[in-house]
Amino acid sequence: MAVLENNDQLGQLWTLIQELSEQLNQNRSLSVSLYTQAGNIKNQAVHSQTGFVLRRFNLDKTKEEYDAELERMNASMIAENQGLQHDNKQLNTLIKEYEQTLETLMSNFRNRAQSVQESELTLIREYETKLLARQEEYAAQDLSSSTALSESLGRISHLLRQFLRSLGGEDTDPPITPDDEEENREPWTSAAASDHALEREIELARLEKENEELRRMMGLVAVQPRRSISESRPTFEPPKLEHQRIPSATKLGGASGTVGPFGTYKRMRSPD
User: Fold this and answer.
1) Burial level of 40, CB count in 10 A (0-12/13-18/19+)?
2) Are 168 and 233 in contact (CB under 8 A)?
3) CB 174 within 8 A of CB 180
4) Using CA atoms, how far apart are residues 88 and 85, in angstroms rounded to an integer?
5) Is residue 239 part of a domain?
6) Is residue 140 in some structural domain?
7) How far apart (Å, rounded) are the C-alpha atoms in residues 244 and 216?
8) Would you say residue 36 lies in a domain?
9) What DSSP designation does 55 have?
10) How many angstroms separate the CA atoms of 34 and 41, rounded?
11) What is the per-residue pLDDT across 113-161, written as a single tens digit (0 to 9) for each?
12) Alpha carbon of 23 to those of 30, 34, 115: distances in Å?
């Protein structure tokens, strides 16, 4: 019984499969026919849109109907072309207006940019001129201040030398002449001459002192008391000798190296 039931079910299943196969074949043939019709309709639509209406697609119409339809289509195409030409003219006009407007805007922009750039350059040049003038003014002020400082230092050094010479009992310098003023304006040229003159005066004072001490040692002048330490010039105290004339053959002076080439004593440096 079970085998018979299985056979009946298989038979029913086979019958159902055959019916489905037939239905699929019908659907396939129908879809092919629909696809063919769609292709034909598409071709007709393409030809209708392009305006090339072929006679073979209108075999069902008479010649009068075909000519009337063709004239109507031509008239519609002419009207459409005229509309397109009008639109093209309007578009060309709009494009020209757009170009003119854009050119005007760009010219205004360029003019504005040029004016702004020129104003910036003018402002920069003005500030640079002011800065250069301020720098020159500062340089002139620095030069004048340094010149005044140099002149002040020259006058102070001159007064200091006069003060030291007055303390030493020397004569002060004569009043400043125009040549001295020129030298004061250029202290680097007068400093060497002043130092040379000061050294020369110091050397003359030393020679005078040595000659005086030499005369005292030879008994030509009386021995004077030693000066106080408060005086500015140091003194050389000769050794105690008898008041008698020394023969010329006797060598004067002290130890070796203390007598100069002309019989004058060299200046003894005080220990620091």
Assistant:
1) exposed
2) yes
3) no
4) 5
5) no
6) no
7) 11
8) yes
9) G
10) 10
11) 999 999 999 999 999 999 999 999 999 999 999 999 889 888 888 888 8
12) 10, 16, 86
Q: Using the structure block, give the residue that is written with the tokens 């140091």.
A: 234
3-class DSSP state for residue 259? strand
Distance CA(44)–CA(10), nearest Å, equals: 51
Query: What SS3 state is found at 221?
Result: coil
The pLDDT of residue 134? 95
pLDDT for the residue 110: 94
Structural domain boundaries enclosing 21: 17-50
- Cβ–Cβ under 8 Å, residues 222 and 213: no
Find, among 130, 186, 120, the residue nearest to 153 by Cα.
186
For the chain, how many structural domains are there in total? Answer: 1
pLDDT computed for residue 64 by the predictor: 81
Collapsing DSSP to helix, strand or coil, 257 comes out as: coil
Read off the pLDDT of each residue in 209-216 and give the average, rounded to a whole number: 83
Angle, helices 187-217/178-185, rounded to nearest 10 degrees: 110
Kindly report each contact of residues 146-153 with a partner whose C-beta sits within 8 Å and lies 24 or more positions away, as own/partner.
147/185, 150/187, 151/184, 151/185, 153/187
**Pairwise CA distance, residues 213 & 203, whole Å:** 15
235 Cβ contact partners less than 8 Å away, ≥ 6 residues apart: 209, 226, 227
Residue 94 lies in a domain: no
* Spatial separation of the C-alpha atoms in residues 172 and 204, rounded to whole Å: 16
What residues have CB less than 8 Å from 201, skipping those under 6 apart?
A: 170
Q: What pLDDT, on the 0 to 100 scale, is given for residue 164?
A: 81
Q: Are 210 and 238 in contact (CB under 8 A)?
A: no
Contact 190, 183 (CB under 8 A): yes
pLDDT at residue number 217: 82
Identify the pLDDT of residue 119: 94
- Among residues 246, 266, 244, 247, the alpha carbon closest in space to that of 255 is found at 266
